[in-house]
Amino acid sequence: MSTSTTVHLVRHGEVHNPGKILYGLLPGFRLSDRGQQMAALVAEHLADADIVDVVASPLLRAQQTAAPIAAAHGLPVGAEQRVIESSNHFEGLRVGHGEGRLTNPRHWPFFVNPLRPSWGEPYRVQEARMIAAIRDARARGAGHEAVIVSHQLPIWVARRSAERRPLVHDPRRRQCGLCSVTSLRFAGDELLGVDYAEPAAALYPGAVDATGGKLT
Q: Which CATH architecture has domain 4-203?
C-alpha cells in the first residue's frame, strides 16, 4: 500500500504595513497584531494534525506565522529558501499611487508579457522551486503531515500546477486568503486531491493584503 502524506501550504498572516506598499522581498516586514491572531487561529486549526515537519520562507512574516504551528507540535521551524515570495518590479512602491502609478511610463516596459509575468519572477520558475520544496517536504513527512509557510503567489502557482491548470491566471481570482491552508493529499508520489480552508476568515474584514488593498 502507498504511504499517505499531506503537505499543508499555509499563507502568512496580515503584515504591519502602514505605508501600504508592495513589500515583496524587503526584509523586516512583520505580522500585524491581527496577523498574529491569524497565526494563532491557523495553529489551532492544525493542532490535531499529525504534523512532523514545519518549514517556512525565510522572510519574517512567514517565520512568525510558522512559529505557533511548530510550537503546538514541539517542532522547530526550518528556513526554506525555495518557498520565498516572488520578486516584483513594484517592490517598495504603493501600486496605483505616486511612483507606483501604472500610467508612469517607466513601468510600461514591464507589461509586455503576461506569461512571464514581465513585472516579476516567471511563473514557471516559481512552479519549479515550489514543487521541489513540496516534494522534499512530502519525503520528510512521509506517512504523516508536513507544513510549508509561504506566500500567496507561490502557493497559488503550486496549486494550479498540482491541479494541472494553466499557470497564467487573473490575480483577482486567487483562492489563497491570509493564513489559509491549501492541503495537498498524496498516496506515495500520486496527488489524490487538494483541500482548502480559511481558519482566519473571521478576521478578514478590515485586513490589508500584500498590495495595500483591504479585504472584505
A: 3-Layer(aba) Sandwich (3.40)
